[in-house]
Amino acid sequence: QEEKNPYNKDLSISEKYLLSNLPKEIYRDIDSIAFIKLNKATHAISKLNLRDFIELPHIHVYIRKNEDLWTATEGLSGAVSFDQILLAIQLVDRQGPISSAHTQTFKMLAEKTKNDLDGSLIWLSHPNIEDDAKELNQFCALVDHMITLTLIPKNNGMFDNIKLLDILKIGGFKESKDGYHVFKGRDKHPLFRITSLNQQPLSFNLDPYIPGIRFQMDLPLTLNCKESFDVMLESITNFQKDLNCVLIDSNKKELNINHIERIRYQVEKIENQMITKNISPGSSCARRLFS
Description:
alpha+beta; Cell Division Protein Zipa, Chain: A; 2 domains; six-stranded antiparallel beta sheet; five-stranded antiparallel beta sheet; elongated
């Protein structure tokens, strides 16, 4: 049976070389990437259709000449000579896959740019944008999990705010710009956060007593999920000791070790699924995909 899509042939050595030398902001696993080679170098930035491209979501346009480094076209000024163009658009984000309209516009603009500047067009990754976006979106839905563990005071009591604030400070939590108390790893990357029971930032000024707190870990955005989960459990254990509270499930039943182990297994499973897909949790690629 004849191959329906001419771009699905094995990539040539030069195309593989291009893929291995992409700008660091471009990811072949989550972006559809088109490469245009001009028949001769030009300064005609105006023919890049940048005004139309920047209307698209998650778009990147780069240019270069010969083997120079790729240059992003954002804020480009002055006369720049180039003979190669790299176009990339993200297939999926947390809102879902790229729309049909945006897909058609991207393909049309790639063709138009190739024709306007007299070049040839090669798709380096994901030429079947809509199909690949749907497939990637299904994968994202599979791994996009927020682990939430809830602590409440014993005997239906309330937390003492002053004591809770002290423990947050001692426990290494810092208040982020959006008001959440966040625990960061050694590399300053957020691992988990604490919220109120309604999943909002803790508001010590408004609530003299707090009836419970939630520990949340956004798995796709967390480096070394399994180890980070264990760090979160250690933090929870310290809170339990100091605040005389219990860890409960969504039915307000106390969590036992078996339940924790099941959650740990789920965390490890998701981490492995993402690594297999070449989108490691907490990586810059994952942070862009799950934005």
